[in-house]
Write a structure and sequence with these properties.
The complex is a heterodimer of chains A (221) and B (261).
Chain A (H helix, E strand, L loop, with lengths): L4 H19 L19 H23 L3 H32 L8 H21 L4 H29 L13 H4 L3 H38 L1
Helix pairs in contact in A: 1-7, 2-3, 2-5, 2-7, 3-4, 3-5, 3-7, 4-5
Chain B lengths: L3 H11 L20 H22 L1 H22 L10 H25 L3 H10 L2 H31 L6 H26 L5 H29 L7 H27 L1
The chains are: A mainly alpha (221), B mainly alpha (261).
Chain lengths: 221, 261
């Protein structure tokens, strides 16, 4: 119980998020209508992605300071989970854009920046797979991972704010915060962020343990 | 290691495959000296070494010139853009110029670490600091890109016509472009040179890093092309400088780890 309470918490929060996210009362707004529920599914993906990628960068830095297999494996697995969240985030965002902006892809700066950010991390996977030697692969992909994260931050949070974007919270558009994130929405939104992030950490945890066991098996065989 | 100059001269003359390089710079480096001065001298010295090597092995630079020239000419032939300045096709003119510059820079900078053979890298590893190497490479690549970009712009403007209304601003944009491309690509080239398929990796890793820069640059140069008021471009200018600062800082911190392998 001491060690896995957070897994139960994650499951409960996600069950709550999905049911309450689909059933709760939401404000009636023009154009948005029911799509405002995407706040519970799309936005937590990006929050989760940033948090998980931050974990990945922290472990990459730890690897450079203290090169152990464990640090490398956790950095790699969390980068992969971060990419998964990013892909889900971009898909849910496109779905939402279809119903509010009229197109799946409307050449919006925020969408473009998100796509470039994903390309950065796909490149990380390609880079990783092009080394045969384990230590060299770990060190160089750790270096690139840190580099990519510092390139990602201005891409997602600074550049779209400088131009005209349709995305809420950018280019002079008000964010959800200012006019419609009332307490009913917050009640579901914050649990959603925590729940999805915990799920991501859980996946990383399981995959990293599996990978470490595999490596130990290969060593002994 | 009492004198870097003597050591390197020695190295280059012993290894007769390399061009014999002599240096005019006085590089006596007493170890007790202030670290910053040592770093500065290392950077100056490494830049000079790259310049001399480039001058001796002209084929690489001439190759890049020919690359720029033939790309511009192919664009001219395939687009038939001669009369674009009159037809409101200025955005196309702008985009094609920047795409040519993008590919030129990837090709020019890709070789900055790949052309160094293992022995020479190992040798540098033993006598200079990694910070010196990366900063020297960044500055050298900036110079190289600046020369190539200016030649490219002049040739492009001659062949395809020159619709630029605010030429000084456009030249400033090209300068910033050269700095931006070389800062981001130098680190990428260092990473890619370690891998097996470095040619592909260079493009795969480099394009996403350069994409935001390229967008800013295209917007800036569009403003210069239309002769808009310069204060309108200030936002993009500052953002571009800030991105460059981030990239240089991160490269400076991370390169020692890359260098060690």
């Amino acid at each position: 119980m001491k060690n896995y309470w957070w897994k139960i918490l994650a499951a409960l929060l996600l069950v709550f998020t999905v049911t309450a996210g689909l059933l709760t009362e939401v404000p009636r707004l023009a154009i948005l209508n029911e799509t405002i529920r995407n706040l519970f599914f799309h936005v937590p993906m990006w929050f989760g992605m940033i948090i998980i990628l931050l974990v990945s960068v922290v472990y990459s830095i730890k690897y450079l300071r203290n090169p152990t297999i464990k640090n490398d494996v956790i950095a790699y697995e969390s980068a992969k989970v971060g990419i998964l969240f990013g892909v889900l985030g971009i898909i849910t965002g496109m779905e939402w854009a279809k119903f509010t902006w009229g197109e799946y892809w409307s050449n919006d700066p925020k969408q473009n920046a998100a796509a470039i950010g994903l390309l950065l991390y796909f490149a990380y996977l390609v880079l990783r797979s092009s080394f045969a030697e384990q230590q060299q692969r770990a060190r160089i992909s750790a270096v690139y991972n840190i580099f990519a994260f510092f390139a990602l931050i201005p891409l997602l949070f600074i550049l779209p704010r400088l131009t005209d974007s349709l995305h809420p919270g950018n280019g002079g558009n008000p964010g959800f915060n200012s006019y419609d994130l009332d307490n009913r929405l917050r009640l579901v939104f914050y649990p959603a962020v925590i729940g999805w992030t915990l799920l991501g950490v859980w996946i990383v945890n399981v995959k990293a343990r599996l990978e470490l066991l595999k490596q130990r098996l290969y060593e002994t065989v | 290691m009492n004198c870097l100059k003597a050591a390197v001269n020695n190295h280059f003359t012993i290894n007769n495959k390399q061009p014999k390089v002599t240096f005019a710079v006085n590089c006596a480096l007493p170890l007790q000296q202030n670290n910053r001065i040592v770093l500065l001298k290392e950077i100056l010295y490494l830049i000079q070494k790259d310049l001399v090597l480039e001058w001796r092995q002209k084929y690489a630079f001439n190759g890049m010139l020919l690359y720029v020239g033939s790309t511009v000419f192919v664009c001219y032939l395939s687009f038939g853009l001669r009369s674009i300045s009159g037809q409101g096709l200025v955005p196309v003119w702008n985009a094609v110029l920047w795409i040519i510059l993008l590919f030129t820079s990837v090709n020019a900078i890709a070789k900055s670490f790949m052309q160094e053979n293992r022995g020479r890298l190992l040798y540098f590893y033993s006598i200079v600091s990694p910070q010196g190497v990366i900063l020297a490479k960044i500055i050298y690549n900036t110079l190289l890109m600046l020369v190539l970009a200016l030649i490219c712009f002049v040739f492009y403007a001659v062949v395809l016509g020159n619709p630029v209304q605010d030429v000084p601003m456009f030249l400033l944009t090209i300068l910033l472009g050269a700095v931006g491309f070389s800062t981001s690509l130098t680190m990428i080239s260092g990473i890619a040179s370690k891998a097996a398929n470095s040619g592909t990796l260079m493009a795969v890793l480099g394009f996403p890093v350069m994409a935001p820069m390229l967008l800013m640059l295209i917007k800036l140069s569009k403003n210069a092309l239309d002769g808009l008021d310069r204060s309108l471009s200030l936002d993009e200018l500052l953002t571009l400088l800030a991105i460059n600062m981030i990239v240089v800082t991160v490269s400076y911190i991370l390169f020692p780890y890359l260098w060690r392998s």
